[in-house]
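Self-study notes.
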Amino acid sequence: MQKLALSCRLVGLAGLLMMVSPTAGAADPAERVSLELELGAAQLQKNELQSPNDASATRFDLARVLGTDSTQGTGRVTVRIPAAGGDEWLAVYAPLTFEGSATLDQTVVYEGRTFAGAPETRASYRFDTYRLTWRRAVIQSAETTVRLGVTGLVRDAAISLSQAGVSASRSNTGLVPLLHGSLERRLGSRISLIGDVDALGSGQGYAVDLSLRAQYVLDTRWAVSAGYRMLDGGADNDTLYNFARIEWLTLGVRRSF
């Protein structure tokens, strides 16, 4: 059901993107509001988990529990709003959910519940994020633009395990401040290479959201892109040990207004 709901939301947003009528005026796309839809098949490379983070719980890799279901479709929507003086605002909605089942290769104790190795175990990993970024152009020329800024990320995350007669779940919602940087290198009037990153680290963990993509401008309103995205990070504190890495190839379409 979560996969179906995600698909419906993204299809609806894609439809909105396609149906919006052109506005008057042919300003530079870089100076107009834009809406971008990005889709991809995300692969959970690892998700090492121990909760609580002490001897009473087992440290295990959730990606192995998901098995072949560790690759699932995902997407994100980005609204870009230019401001005066080379400033920009980005608003991002990025839902991400993995669900699957497998047989555990060991007995696992998670959130005080014991999961035996023999029965089939179902796992769910959700990491939805909502982001607001402010960034400013610090280098801007005909070929190159470098922007630096800050991102406020709200995460809505949950990890669940269940098997016959036993289930356990841990959820977490919180605000994470990140540093932001982006680089755009224009190779001509239509083709650009774009890299952007939100990242920050501390003694108890780190977070990285990295994207590298090539963009092709179709006309003054439409552009398409293809590239690579990686999410990497986690936390090691008194109550939780959890480090995950997710990678995927992306396809995107952008509409300027």
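Second protein, same conventions, sequence then structure:
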Amino acid sequence: MAKKIFSVFLLISLIFPLTFLYFYLFPPEIISTERAFSQFAGELKKRASEKNLRGYISSIEEIHGIQSEEIEKLFPDINAVLFAYEKWKVLVSENEREGIKKKINIYIRRWGNLIGSDSFSRLIQKEARASANLRYYPQVFCEAIPGKNKLCRLTLNIIDFATKQKILSVSTRFTQPGYYAQMKKRQKVLKFGTYISAGIFSLSFLSLFFIYLAEVIKKKKIRRNLPQILLTSPMQHPIIYK
């Protein structure tokens, strides 16, 4: 009975290590947004430098393709990629401009005697001059990669504002953040389970080893004492019926 119990434990303990080994040998392709966007920014900087792009560029205001809450949360990160290239000046989006204007209005109402009402007009004039010199604007597309689980391709096109022609295109791949977090959690569970399973495997293996060792010793002892057992056995003195 003990052999069956420890044999079952031995087999069960192999589940986690085998699963961990499978994912180690054939890992699913998961790419964090941090790594993807770091490479993305580096590639954009390199390609823009090669073309020696200069001047004003508008910030990203829309993501085409996949529409989800997870992608929307990446909006500031995608926009921040534009700042990797130092030779152009990024104009903030309309939403950000509205936020700045609201803050200035609040400051004017609270501290009008210190700031002055001309602060707002100076901001408007500065924006107008920058907009007049706008040379580029970005287009961003996010699409699922066929055959790849939760893997997306993000493509950034830089468009010439005057000609509306694409002058630069860079792309990167990343795993959707929710699925990435889920996979990393599963890896931790598998790793922890493998440690526990290794302990159970060792205990079960040693227990079975000593059980079989005890049986082998017992059988050898019986074989060694078998002649003496046969001589003293009642079968050596048959009963005679009269």
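Instructor comment on the second fold: The domain at 31-175 is CATH 3.40.50 (Rossmann fold).
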